[in-house]
Amino acid sequence: MKKYDFNQVIDRKNTFSFKWDNVSYGDKDMLPMPVADMDFPVAEEILAAIDQITKHEILGYSIVPESLQIAAQKKIANDYGWETELAWQVWIPGIVPGITAACAAFSSPEDGILTAIPVYHPFHLVAGWMGHPLHTFPMIEEAGRWTYDFVAFENALKKGPKVFLFCNPHNPGGTVFSTDEIARIKALCHQYDCKIISDEIHADLIIDSNVKHRCIQSEISFFATSKAYNTAGLGGAVAIIPDAATRLAFQKKTFGFFPMLSRHSIEVMLATYAMPSNWLDSLLPYLRSNHTLLISRMNQLPGISMLPLEATYLAWIGFDSQMHGDFQKRLFDAGLHVLRGDQFLGGDFVRLNFACPEVQLLKAIDIIESVVYATR
Ligand SMILES: Cc1ncc(COP(=O)(O)O)c(C=O)c1O
C-alpha cells in the first residue's frame, strides 16, 4: 500500500497562509491550530493534476465535466449510501457561500434561521449577514458524546424558522449523527415545515471507526472533498438538491454572485475522486493516533475535559474558567493559537486542529500543560 508521510514538517510561513501568517502573530513564534486546514502535504495525484495545468499554460474559464458529476455521484452512493441523480447537482465554489445562498432563498426577516450551538461560526453569522433572526438550541452531552437537546430543538422549531442548518458531522464536537437521530431531525423539520440545509464536508474524516456517516437526504445537502484531501484553499463543492423548484430558487441566489469554478478546482476534484482510497486509509489512522494522544493527555489535566470525537480533526476542549481564566488568551500568550469557544457560541471551550505532524501536536500539548500548571 502506498505510504504518505504525515510526519513531515513543512514550513508554511510566508506563504500567505491564513493559519501560519496570521497578522495578529506579528514577530511572535506561534504554533497555529485554528482554521481547519491540514499541515500535511497534498497527495501526489493531486499535485500531478496541478502540474498538468501548469504545463498546458492556459487558465481560461472552465466547465464542470460529466466525469466530475459522475465521480461525485458514485462517492455519495458508495461511501454515504445515497443514490442521487446527476440533474440534482449544482457545483459551487464553496459551502459557506452555498449556505448563504440557501438562506437567502428560503429564509426571510420574518421567520429566520435555526441551528444547533456550538456550531461552525458561519452557521450562526449568516443570520446577521442576511439581517434575519437567529434561532438556536444547545448540543448536550449524552453517553459520552455531543448530541441535540431534542426538546429545545422542537421548541425552537415552534418559533417558525424556515431554514435549519444541519452540520453532520458536527463542527465542533465531532458528532456523526446516527440513523435514529437523523430520522428524528427529519420528522421534526417536516412537522414544522422547515427546510434542512445539510453540510457534510467532514463526512470522510471519521475518527471513531465504529460509526458510519449517513446522509440526511434533505432539501439541500452540501459535499466537498476539500477537507479530507486538504485542498480547501482551492474551493469547489457540490450541492445536491433533488427538487427542481428548490434547485432553481437556490441557483437564482447564486447567479452573478458565484464565480465559475477554476480549472484548478475542477482538475483537482477530478484527481481527488479518482484517487485510490488509501489516502484516507493512511490519513485516518494518523488522525486517530493524534486524537488518542491529545484526549488522553487533556483528560489528565485539572479543570480540562474533552469528549472523544466521532469525526473531524477539530478537538473541542472544555476548561474550568474559575481555574484557568481566559484560557484561550493564556494559550495565545504562551505561543499556541486555538479558537475561542465563543466564536462557535460555545462558552468555556477552545477548538484545536490536530491535523498536523505528531511533533507539532506534542509541542501544543506541552504548551497547554505549562499554561494549566502555571500559577496565575
Ligand atoms: C462545517 C464546515 N463547513 C464548511 C466549511 C468551509 O467550506 P468551504 O471552504 O467550502 O466554504 C468548513 C471549514 O472549516 C466547515 O468546518
From TrEMBL:
Required co-factors: pyridoxal 5'-phosphate
Enzyme Commission number(s) of this protein: 4.4.1.13
GO terms, molecular function: transaminase activity
Transmembrane segments: none
UniProt keyword terms in alphabetical order: Aminotransferase, Lyase, Pyridoxal phosphate, Transferase
Claim: Transferase is one of the keywords in the record: yes
PANTHER family to which the protein is assigned, alphabetical: PROTEIN MALY
Family listed: Belongs to the class-II pyridoxal-phosphate-dependent aminotransferase family. MalY/PatB cystathionine beta-lyase subfamily.
Name this protein carries in UniProt: cysteine-S-conjugate beta-lyase
